[in-house]
Amino acid sequence: MADTARIALDGKELDLPVVRGSAGEVGIDIAALRRDSGAITVDPGYANTGSCRSAITFIDGEQGVLRYRGIPIEQLAERSHFLETAMLLLDGELPAREALGSFMSHITYHTMVHEDVRSFYEGFPKRAHPMAICGAVVGALSTFYSDSLDMHDERQVEISIHRLIAKLPTIVAYSYKHSIGQPFMYPRNDLGYAANFLHMMFATPCEDYVVDAQIARTMDTIFLLHADHEQNCSASTVRMVGSSMANLFASIAAGVHALWGPLHGGANQAVVEMLRQILATGDRGSDYLDKVKNKAAAGVRLMGFGHRVYKNFDPRAKILKKLCFEVLDRVHASTPLLDLAVELEEIALRDEYFISRKLYPNVDFYSGIILQALGIPVDMFPTLFTIGRLPGWIAHWHEMIRDPDARLARPRQIYTGPTQRDYVAIDDR
Ligand code: CMC
Q1: Catalytic status, residue 307
Q2: Is the pTM of this model over 0.90?
Q3: What is residue 383's predicted lDDT score, i.e. its pLDDT?
Q4: What is the pLDDT at residue 298?
Q5: Please, what's the largest Cα pairwise distance for the chain?
Q6: What does R_g of the chain's alpha carbons equal in angstroms?
Q7: What is d(CA 114, CA 205) in angstroms, rounded to the nearest whole number?
Q8: How far apart are CA 308 and CA 424, in angstroms?
Q9: pLDDT per residue over 373-424, tens digit each?
Q10: Is the Cβ atom of 263 under 6 angstroms away from ligand 1?
Q11: pLDDT value for 77
């Protein structure tokens, strides 16, 4: 196999090194391209650009494969749990029993946020989107923990990681309590990670709230399924911000904001809103699909379908579809949204428009229906994605700051504006 790729430009030939990944992926290393040829590459949306070497997550989008540190997502969803999977992502290996116990204990004992953080919430409008609050409060954590911002000190990094993973569910649950005007519920150290989150969301000081073990397990699995997805928009944002040597809290806050958009982590909210809108019109989906296919208006898409990398079933969607039926059965919820989603999926998978573009259900198609059945308000959905994705973002940030090849992320451009011209005085314009 050739270990160089040759390009010819303006009569000059250039050999570029070929890089091969452990699962056979091939890349052309263009680091010397501009120096040796004067040219750059152009790749809107970076669909063909490898921004780094990474040993965290592998995706084969053609085959519908997702593995964290080599372990298939299906095995992790069935046999692991979120905090163990977080350790796998962060450290590269499944933890030994003692290390796992110590990590879980650190997380448990860092779940409270500083009391002064609570006063921030009073300043946010009641109708504030929880992702806006989440990004703002995560960024503000750096003001409370200025003792642990040195990214070259592994102990400080470790403490920041514990604080972030432990406090994010508290920050998210507080945003919900603020929006509905209920008292904030302190974390409970006798509960597991997902169960404690459900407690902070749904308990009140007036009465006991018993967390259903199966529902807590479902919540945990949802977090686990979202825990990483290699160089997606938000992980790349975290890496990009971190490449300027911004601290971990600032880098993660940037990731939260990147995740908010409806083409990324906001899609689970968009799916449920789309399904409700279709139901309200009395349509069984075919009118809506016609609008999608005719591109009737900018941005009308079958939300929860399609993916930049998967050109086959998203393996997470398969697991979530099964979970969706189990949860709705467990909470005895009526199923019009699920029924409609299944119908839409069936129609779309038979339709030439979706087949030819290789558009399949993604992670967001069924997750929103589950969250809704659990009583989570729609605008909170992306914040749950955020809790899940946090270990992945941290693993990428950590990998980047330890990578000797990492540099300040600073893409180039092809300038298409006016060439040099003279300033014109205001009276002469
Ligand atoms: N519904 C209808 N048409 C679609 C859809 C969709 N959901 N997704 C892509 N297409 C069409 C698109 O219009 C284009 O058609 P044409 O060739 O006629 O112009 C073609 O498929 C290629 O689309 P693209 O926008 O160039 O593809 P992309 O890789 O840039 O977009 C995507 C990926 C996820 C942004 C897109 O599929 C989409 O908007 N999906 C709906 C939003 C969604 O579910 N997002 C969650 C993604 S998974 C969670 C995460 O990783 O954040």
Answers
A1: yes
A2: yes
A3: 96
A4: 81
A5: 79
A6: 23
A7: 20
A8: 45
A9: 898 999 999 999 999 999 999 999 999 999 999 999 999 999 999 999 999 9
A10: yes
A11: 98
Structure confidence by residue, pLDDT tens digits, 142-169: 999 988 899 999 999 999 999 999 999 9
304 Cα: distance to centroid of ligand 1 (angstroms):
9
Ligand 1 and 303: CB distance under 6 A: yes
Task: Say whether 364 is catalytic.
Answer: yes
Beta pairing partners, 17: 4
**Whole-angstrom distance, CA of residue 19 vs CA of residue 53:** 9
Tokens of 48: 């063909």
Within 10 angstroms of residue 329's Cβ, the number of other Cβ atoms is 11
Residue 314 makes CB contacts below 8 A (sequence gap 6+) with 64, 66, 307, 360, 361, 362, 363
Distance between Cα 363 and ligand 1 center (Å): 13
Q: How far, in Å, CA of 68 to CA of 76, rounded?
A: 9
User: What is the pLDDT, as a whole number, of residue 129?
Assistant: 94
Mutate to test the pocket of ligand 1, among 357, 363, 381, 386 (most ligand atoms within 8 A of CB): 357
Which listed residue (220, 228, 314, 364) is catalytic?
Answer: 364
